[in-house]
């Protein structure tokens, strides 16, 4: 399993509270910080990161310590492939004195760093989350409205960080002398905070696999996590993110539970037909099935289906500008082997996807008279 990813700039923008509009009706020579901030949030949601970056810079020229603007600039820099510049903003936010912003920044820094440094940032994020949890629990005990839901959110964010730390010990830091025990301790702590987080159980499955536990023990962890959401219909808000479901599918593949893995992946593709990794995993499962069956007809059927899935993975990889060189290489290797076995691509037809060249209309610096650069 890969490390748990923090939410995207688009997701952060959607989750951000809408800034209060300026109450003044008098035309101003300069745009207000509030109006600039509102535009920045919209631009992030529209994924117009270069223009969002300009707006964030403009806000910081007017208010150099503005925490939201610094966060939005860092997110824009991440999306425009300038991670080190983004890290500078996150490092400033990590000690800005606003606990929620500090936690957010520390989690991003943990994603940007490697091994021990990443672990340190996760630890600091968890420290901040412990403080937040204490605050919301006090608010809940006072009967404050919304405190109970807020407590659930903080607990889930804490378990996400703890799972990411456990995954580090299972992957990048697997040669650490206490990797297995440290990973298990983190997962047990996460369970004590929120046993309904499916990612904990999936990672417990990975831990059991790496510890050479009996297959039945490994599978029980995967099954426990899956049972938390398996009965939910497509699109239900209670479903875990697609990244979590792909992780479950991967451990099911490792446990040779291939039909279950395909069931999980089909659910992912029902929500997002352009999920490159899900198509790739479906193709890989089909390839392995074809390798194992004895009859020539069954083998050809499995491999023909696998070829279709792998072709879709390759198509969406290029169409969506997905970046995962190992996945691309393995996909191409499998297709080459299928080609050598006489399994051809299906003919293109009118139902094939077209390139998405359309662009959503976004904010521009002159549409409503707003000067981004203040010149």
From the structure above, extract its key features.
single chain; 66% helix; mainly alpha; 375 residues
Mean pLDDT: 86
Total beta-strand segments:
0
Helicity, as a percent range: 55-70%
Strand share of the residues? under 5%
Can you write the helix and strand succession as a string?
A: HHHHHHHHHHHHHHHH
Report, as a whole number of angstroms, the end-to-end distance: 49 Å
Enumerate the spans where pLDDT stays under 50 for 5 or more consecutive residues. Answer: 350-369
Main beta sheet strand tally, sense and closure: none
Cα radius of gyration in angstroms: 24 Å
What does this protein look like?
The structure is a single chain. The model is unreliable at 350-369 (pLDDT under 50). The radius of gyration is 24 Å and the shape is globular. Helices cover 66% and strands 0% of the residues. It is built from 16 helices and no strands. Helix 13 (258-271) packs antiparallel against helix 14 (276-292) and helix 15 packs antiparallel against helix 16. By secondary structure, the protein is mainly α. The protein has helices spanning 9-15, 33-45, 49-62, 67-79, 83-93, 99-112, 115-141, 147-170, 179-193, 198-210, 215-227, 242-254, 258-271, 276-292, 296-319, 325-340.
């Amino acid at each position: 399993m890969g490390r748990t990813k923090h939410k995207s700039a688009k997701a952060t923008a959607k989750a951000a509270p809408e800034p209060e509009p300026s109450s003044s009706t008098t035309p101003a020579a300069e745009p207000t910080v509030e109006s600039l901030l509102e535009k920045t949030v919209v631009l992030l949601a529209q994924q117009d990161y270069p223009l969002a970056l300009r707006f964030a810079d403009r806000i910081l020229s007017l208010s150099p310590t503005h925490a939201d603007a610094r966060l939005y600039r860092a997110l824009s820099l991440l999306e425009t492939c300038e991670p080190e510049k983004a890290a500078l903003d996150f490092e400033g936010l990590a000690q800005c004195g606003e606990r929620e912003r500090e936690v957010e920044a520390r989690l991003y820094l943990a994603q940007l760093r490697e091994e021990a440094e990443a672990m340190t940032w996760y630890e600091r994020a968890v420290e901040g989350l412990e403080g937040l949890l204490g605050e919301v629990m006090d608010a809940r005990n006072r009967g404050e409205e919304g405190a109970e839901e807020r407590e659930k959110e903080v607990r889930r964010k804490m378990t996400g960080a703890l799972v990411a730390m456990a995954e580090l010990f299972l992957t990048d830091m697997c040669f650490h002398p206490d990797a297995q025990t440290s990973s298990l301790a983190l997962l047990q702590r996460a369970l004590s905070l929120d046993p309904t987080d499916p990612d904990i159980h999936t990672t417990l499955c990975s831990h059991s696999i790496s510890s050479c536990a009996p297959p039945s023990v490994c599978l029980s962890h995967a099954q426990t996590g899956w049972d938390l959401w398996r009965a939910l219909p497509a699109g239900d808000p209670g479903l875990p993110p697609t990244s979590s479901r792909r992780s479950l599918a991967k451990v099911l593949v490792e446990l040779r539970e291939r039909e279950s893995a395909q069931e999980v992946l089909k659910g992912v593709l029902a929500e997002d037909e352009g999920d490159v990794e899900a198509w790739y995993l479906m193709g890989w499962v089909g390839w392995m099935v074809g390798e194992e069956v004895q009859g020539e007809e069954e083998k050809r059927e499995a491999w023909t289906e696998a070829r279709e899935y792998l072709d879709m993975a390759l198509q969406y990889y290029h169409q969506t500008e997905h970046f995962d060189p190992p996945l691309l290489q393995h996909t191409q290797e499998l297709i080459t082997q299928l080609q050598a076995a006489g399994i051809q691509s299906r003919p293109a037809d009118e139902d094939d996807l077209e390139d998405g060249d359309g662009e959503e209309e976004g904010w521009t610096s002159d549409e409503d008279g707003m000067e981004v650069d203040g010149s």
